[in-house]
Design brief:
By secondary structure, this protein is α/β, with parallel strands linked by helices. It is built from 22 helices and twelve strands. The chain folds into three domains: 325 residues, ABC transporter transmembrane region fold (Up-down Bundle), CATH 1.20.1560; 154 residues, 3-Layer(aba) Sandwich (Rossmann fold); 74 residues, 3-Layer(aba) Sandwich (Rossmann fold), CATH 3.40.50.300. A six-stranded mixed beta sheet has the order 6-9-10-3-11-12, with helices on both faces.
């Protein structure tokens, strides 16, 4: 794994990662909406130019109407002044609407791209990286990009326009007073630079600690039952308080820089205005102004307003720079995710597509989740189409790993796995997995209706087949009493249903998909004896004429399988029928004796 990937997932402070390639890539997301962005940019220029005319109107009002006491034509002046502000309002409104449309569309595109990438990532990716931090990519980091597109780049250009326009107006009115007005600008830039550097560090801390907070919340909310079971609420609360407090501290540090910067800018602005007033008073009262360029009260009023207007966009530029920095950091993390290679994908030219016959063969398979910590060691076996094979062994012996490798959730390091005599790495990935239906011990149900959870968006599965499936597993008895029946809306992970009911829905899902290969991974270990008896008949029928792999601890559920494979510390130790393995009086016999004694003792 590269250093960038490690940084990204550890949420270390990235610091200044600005790269022109990142900026160019970000602008690429604007390309489909360039016409809207261009119109918004033009409106921004027009709005800021109109803003810059306001002090000039003040100068005209004072010198042409108020000072001489003139009233002729004042209604035309007032109408022009009103028209300027009316157009400013219209342009500003249209600009905001267009920019937010562009920003929301870009966010939609980026989130869709990230989600699509996450859906195609191999399971090993989620083994390595916390879900909470991945969610931060989809939420906080994408929001930072939205801020860039809605109030970042275009507003920066608008601020530059108004700064240039103000300076031009000031020099047009009086070049000496303009120079005096700009004396404090270097101080303002120095303060802005100080704020920019320190606030950037603060933003990095806020984002880093926010990601850690999200990761903690996701983990402990998902594990709330375990926390309560182990009476670990106080310890979890203490740990959350520590992480939450560090997040608070990061925000307070950032607020500290804001608390200094904004009053400092106001102070520098006040100094600038005081200098302008002093210089005006000196020139005006001493009569040192050159002939034809005498300063007027209207000019002074205009310069005071121009000075105030000049400081605002310069101050805003600092904020926009921090928006840019936050967006660059966020986009860096997003692009690292988007650029991660999907390790497991279909070959460019698959050797096999479509449904399988169901023949499975492992040839000298070695596999480790990490480095050389082998989970499977030189495992070889063959399963013929329609054969049912059970995998037994102690926890950690590699039973579930066999099924995960078969569906290519992970790739092996040595050996080969064949489906219908074709290496599974030569299969089209979607076609490969469409041959399997899996029923797990820990059933995952999505929020939505019961029918949607059985079909999982597969439109080829008819309503009649769904009803057939729930009848086969005897799930209609509890589904019929739910409000709406198949249309009953399940909550997240099927909250409110019993473990047995969730298992029955999972079995109905497997039956509805009519797989060539059925995998039952501890599928009945969480079901009570009565429920197990109800579904056993359906399980037996669905296993007929299908290749079936059964992973189980309870040996009583697998005795009718054609063959049983005994795993021990990642190695295949024994293989045969139930009676054959008992006759060997080996590892399987010992496992059977332990369970028999346990049942007898119970």
């Amino acid at each position: 794994m590269s250093d960038d990937v490690r940084k990204y997932h550890e949420e270390d402070a990235i610091g200044n990662v600005y790269d022109i390639r990142i900026a160019r890539r970000l602008l690429g997301y604007l390309r489909p909406y360039w016409h809207l962005a261009a119109i918004a940019l033009v409106l921004t220029f027009l709005t800021n130019i109109l803003i810059s005319t306001q002090p000039f109107f003040t100068k005209l009002a004072v010198d042409e109407y108020i000072t001489p006491g003139r009233t002729d034509g004042i209604w035309l002046f007032a109408l022009a002044f009103f028209a300027v502000f009316l157009f400013r309002f219209i342009f500003s409104y249209a600009q905001e609407v267009l920019l937010n449309r562009v920003g929301q569309r870009v966010m939609l595109d980026i989130r869709s791209q990230i989600f699509s990438k996450l859906q195609r990532q191999e399971l090993a990716y989620y083994d390595r990286y916390p879900v909470g931090r991945i969610i931060t990519r989809l939420t906080s980091d994408v929001d930072a990009l939205n801020e860039l597109f809605t109030s970042g780049v275009i507003d920066v250009l608008g601020d530059l326009v108004i700064i240039i326009a103000i300076i031009v107006w000031m020099f047009a009115l009086d070049w000496k007073l303009a120079i005096v007005s700009l004396v404090t600008v270097p101080l303002l830039f120095a303060a802005t630079n100080w704020f920019r550097k320190h606030a950037r560090i603060g933003f990095d801390k806020v984002r880093t600690r926010n990601a850690r907070l999200n990761a903690f919340l996701q983990e402990y909310i998902s594990g709330a039952q375990t926390v309560q079971l182990m009476n670990a609420e106080d310890r979890a609360q203490a740990k959350f308080r520590e992480i939450n407090d560090r997040y608070r501290q990061a925000n307070i540090e950032t607020i500290y820089y804001y608390a200094i910067f904004y009053p400092l800018v106001d102070l520098i602005g006040a100094i600038g205005i005081a200098v302008v007033i002093f210089f005006f008073g000196y020139e005006y009262l001493s009569g040192l102004s050159a002939a034809g360029t005498a300063l007027t009260v209207g000019v002074l009023a205009a310069f005071i307003q121009y000075s105030q207007q000049l400081f605002q966009p310069i101050r805003d530029l600092s904020d926009k720079f921090n928006v840019l920095q936050a967006a660059i950091v966020a986009s860096h993390r997003i692009f690292v995710l988007l650029d991660l290679d999907v390790a497991i994908k279909s070959p460019e030219v698959p050797k096999r597509i479509g449904p399988a016959y169901g023949k499975i063969e492992f040839k000298n398979v070695w596999f480790a989740y990490k480095d050389n910590d082998w989970v499977l060691k030189d495992v070889s076996f063959t399963i013929e189409p329609g054969e049912s094979v059970a995998f037994v062994g102690h926890t950690g012996s590699g039973k579930t790993t066999v099924t995960n490798l078969l569906m290519r959730f992970y790739d092996i390091q040595k050996g080969s796995i064949l489906l219908d005599d074709i290496d599974i790495r030569e299969w089209d990935l979607n076609d490969l997995r469409s041959n399997f239906a899996v029923v797990l011990q820990d059933v995952f149900l999505f929020s939505g209706s019961v029918e949607q959870n059985i079909r999982l968006g597969n439109k080829s599965i008819s309503r009649d087949r769904v009803e057939w499936a729930i009848n086969e597993v005897h799930a209609q008895e509890f589904i019929s009493v739910l409000e709406g029946g198949l249309g009953f809306q399940l909550k997240e992970r099927g909250a409110g249903l019993s473990v047995g009911q969730k298992q029955l829905i999972s079995f109905a899902r497997a039956l509805a998909f009519d797989p060539k290969i059925l995998i039952l991974d501890e599928a009945t270990s969480s079901i009570d004896t009565e429920t197990e008896q109800l579904i056993q008949r359906a399980v037996d029928r669905v296993m007929q004429d299908r290749t079936s792999l059964v992973v189980a601890h309870r040996l009583s559920t697998i005795q009718r399988c054609d063959r049983i494979i005994v795993m021990h510390h990642g190695e295949l130790k024994e293989m045969g029928s139930h009676n054959e393995l008992l006759g060997l009086r080996g590892l399987y016999w010992k496992l059977y004796q332990l369970q028999y004694e346990a049942r007898a003792a119970g």
